[in-house]
Amino acid sequence: MTLSRTPDRKSNGALRGLLAEVGWSEERLARNVNDLAAATGTSLRLDRRSVAHWLAGRPPEQPVPTLVAEALSRGLGRLVTVAATGLDPGRPADAHTAGQEGTHSDVHVQDAVTALADLAEFGDAQRGSPAGGVHGPAESTAPSRPQAAGGASVRIRTISPERVPAVEAMVRVYSDLDEAFGGGHSRRALAAYLAGGLAPRLRGSGDDQASRSRIWSAAIRLTYRCGFMCFDEELHGLAQRYYRVALDLASEAGDAAAYAIVLRTMSHQARLLGHRRHAVHLAEAAVVTGGRAMPPARSAFLLGQVAVAAAGAGDKTNAVASLSSAERQLNRATSLSATDGSADAAMGGYHHAALAHQQAAVQALLGDRAGAITALTTSIRHRPAKERRARAVTLARLAELQLSQGELEQAVSTWHAFLNDHRHLRSGRATTALNIMRSRLAPYAANVDAAQLLTRAPADDRLRAH
Question: Which of 6, 307, 370, 437 could make a disulfide contact with 323, Cβ separation 3.0–4.6 Å?
Fold first, then answer.
C-alpha cells in the first residue's frame, strides 16, 4: 500500500500555481529571471535548483522576489505582485495569496497599516546620502513592504459614511498644498495623518462596502502624494517606500489605474537617479498595467513617460513614437475633466503644460536644446497658476538651457521669475535648482544683471532649516 505524503505546510503553493498557469518549468523561470536581472544591470546565476528551493518554502533575498514577480507578470500578461508569488518573507506562501489579491485580506491590511505607521516615524533618517538610501533599480518593480517594527500598536478604527467626504477632502487639501508650497511644507503632517488617522481605518470591518472602497481610494492617493512629497524633498529612499505601499494598496483595491500611475512615477524617479534602462521597464509596465481602460489623458500621461525614459536610454525611435502617441491621446481628451486631470489630480494632473514639459525633456535628452527651450516656454505659458512648484522647477530648467545656449540675458530674466516662485516653496528640488543657478552664474559674476540676480537669491537653505 502506498501512503500519501502529507504536504509541507511551508511549501510555496502560490508560486507553484503561477508556474502551472504560465506553463513554465523551473528551469524556464530561472532563465527568465536571469535575463531580466541582466537587463537591469544585475548578474544572477539561478537554475532549476534555485526555483526548487523557493517552491520548498525557502524564499530568496531581494532583488530576486521582485524580479520573479516581474518575469511572471510579463509571461502572464497581467500584474503579479511579490506577495502573489509567495516569496515575500513577511507573508505566508500559500495559494490563497495568489488568488485573492483583489480583496482586503486581514494579513495584507495589517501590512499596509504597519508600513504607514513605521514610515511616519522613519522621518529624515535617510537624509545625507546622495540617493537618500534608495534601493537598487530592480527592487522597485513591484511592491515590497518594509519589515514591521512598531505598527502593531495602531488601534483599529471604523468610519461612518458621513465622515468619508472629510477624508476625501484631505486628498484635495494635501495635493493643493504640495503643488503650491512644495513637499517640505506638509509632508510630516500628511505622514502623521496617514499613520494615525487613515491607516487604522483600513483594518476596520464595520464599514459598508461603498465607504470602505472610498477610504481605500483616498488612502492610495494620499500615500502616493506623501511619496511624491518625499521625492520633492529629495528623500528618495523614503519616497520609494511610500510608493511601494501605494502599489500594495492599489493592488489590494484592484485599482489598476492607480497602480499604473505609481509605476510611472517610479520610472521618473529611476531615470533621475541614473537607472535608465530600468526607468524604461517601469514606464512600459505602467502602460501595460493601465491597459485600454485608462482615459485618454491618463494614457497620454503614461506614454509621455515612456518617451522620456526611452530618450534617456538613447532609444530615439521609441521616444519619438511614444511622444506622438501621447500627443494623440491628449488630443482625444476633449472634456475639461479629462484634459486637466482634475478627476484624479492627487495622482498627477495631466494637461498640455505637462505634455510640453515631457516634450522638452525628450528633446533635451536627444540633443535638441533649442527645441527643448521652445517646449518649456510653452509649458510655462499653459501651466495652471496653482501649480507653483512645477512652474518653478520648469523655469529653473529653462534658464539652465538658455544659459547653455549663450542666452545670458534671457536666462537671468527666467531665473528672476524662478525666484518669485521659490520664495514660497519648501522643496528640495527647488533648493537644488537654486544651487545650480548660483553655480552656473558664478563665471558671470562681473555681469551687472547676473550680479543683481545672485544678490537677490536667498543665502540660506530654508528647506534644510525646517
Answer: 307
